[in-house]
Amino acid sequence: MDKLGRREDLHRVVSAAARSWSDLPLDVLRLVASRVPLPDHPHMSLVCKTWRRSVRQVYPADRSPVLLHYKRWGSGIFHCYSPLFNKTFVLRCPADLSGTKICSARDGWLMLRRNSQVILANPITGVAHHLALPQHCHYFMYVSFAGPPSDCTVFAIETFIPESVRISVYRRGSWASPRTYENNCRFKISPRSNPVYHRGSFYCLGSKGELGVYDPEKDTWTVLAKPINFYPAKSSNCGESFLIESEGELLSVLTGKFGRRVRVFRLNEVDMVWEKIESLVGRRRRSLFVRSAMSISSTPSIDHRMNNKVYFPRVHGEPEIIESEVERSGDRIFFVPKCSSREGDDETRRRNEGDHGGICCCDLENRKYSEYFGSNEYLYSIWFEPRLSDD
């Protein structure tokens, strides 16, 4: 072989070695990306623009509670607004939940009501358990549940006068006949707070900070002698109040008008008094998500900026709406847009991801509040933590 031929061969070898992975055909990169676990797709997209076009855009669904609501009430389509991403993911539930009303939520399960049925459903997996209602259980004013659907306890309470309550309980596979319990002292349930399951009993928050407790094992209802009030020196109502169970503690959130003057209290279960706390930092940097149907405590594990805040079901602006599917990867779950690729969507995404405001919240660290004015409230909504629970 002459010298010219050897130079050409050497040039081709050097040129091939100098080519980068970004020079691979897009179809080949997509094939590689299809074998990459979903949690690694965001990392893969940071390599270069070509790789970014080859991987799917995914959003972790299990790193922050979402505000789940029906855009069109009673349909099989539900919307999940993520305060972490300030986006709304539109999903079709695998189970038939048409015509239902959301009552409560816990541990990845929704409790819904439809005519003469109570349904415990996981909208992520599509698993649903139906609990037939007897004729005497025709109405729920406040309701909560505990335990897996196959062995759950449902607690429903009605109150029309401060002197008594009417309680219905589903336990061990059947409904007990409703019972009326006389209050040992006057008790008016906070209209914005569902019961909370804590240490084997269901707790109901009074409008002034009192607590009513139902023990399902003993079938007893008691209005506790203490606490009497959030502020012992005051006897008047304290505005909107929410009860939350958080890592073995009972917390309550009080709000003034328009989300102003947010206060958080912890129940001292030794002295049985509410103690005001200024921060959630000492409690694994938690955040609180309040809503009348269900308020929850969570530890957002992606963005530290979400910690130590109280979130409300109100949003400024118009979050980007993304038609999505839910996909598993190991023990993780992700919102995946139905568009299979990022190709050509960068400009659209930049246009959609402008300054759309975000969720209303109170930052407990610097006492900053989001204005209610100009925000939109999701009326038929509930805070929900997506999980892969099947039972």
Could you please describe the fold and organization of this structure?
With 391 residues, the protein is mostly beta strands. It has 2 domains: 52 residues, no CATH class; 320 residues, 6 Propeller (Neuraminidase), CATH 2.120.10. 11% of the residues lie in helices and 40% in strands. It is built from 5 helices and 30 strands. The strands form 6 sheets. Strands 1-26-25-4-3-2-30 form a 7-stranded mixed β-sheet, with no helix packed on it. Strands 22, 23, 24, 27, 28 and 29 form a 6-stranded mixed β-sheet that branches. Strands 9, 10, 11, 12 and 13 form a 5-stranded antiparallel β-sheet that branches. The longest helix has 16 residues. 37% of the residues are buried. About 3% of the residues have low confidence.
